Amino acid sequence: MFNQTITFILAGGIGSRLYPLTSKRSKPSVPFGGKYRIIDFTLTNCLHSGLRNILVLTQYKSHSLNKHLRDGWSIFNPELGEYITPVPAQMNLGENWYKGTADAIFQNLNLLERSQAEYVLILSGDHIYRMDYEAMLRSHQDTKADVTVACMEVAVKDASAFGVVVTKEDRQIVAFEEKPTQPTPIPGNPDKALASMGLYIFSSQLLTKVLMEDNKNHASSNDFGKDILPLLVKDKKVQAYTFGESQGRVSQDRYWRDVGTIDAFYQANMDLLEPIPKLDLYQHNWPVRTYQPQTPPARTTPGNSGSEGTFINSILASGVVISGGHVSHSVLFDNIFVNDNASIENSIIFGGVHVGAGARLKNCIIDKNVKIPPGETVGYDAHKDRQRFTLSEKGVVVVPNDYVFSR
Question: What is the pTM of this model?
Answer without folding.
Answer: 0.95
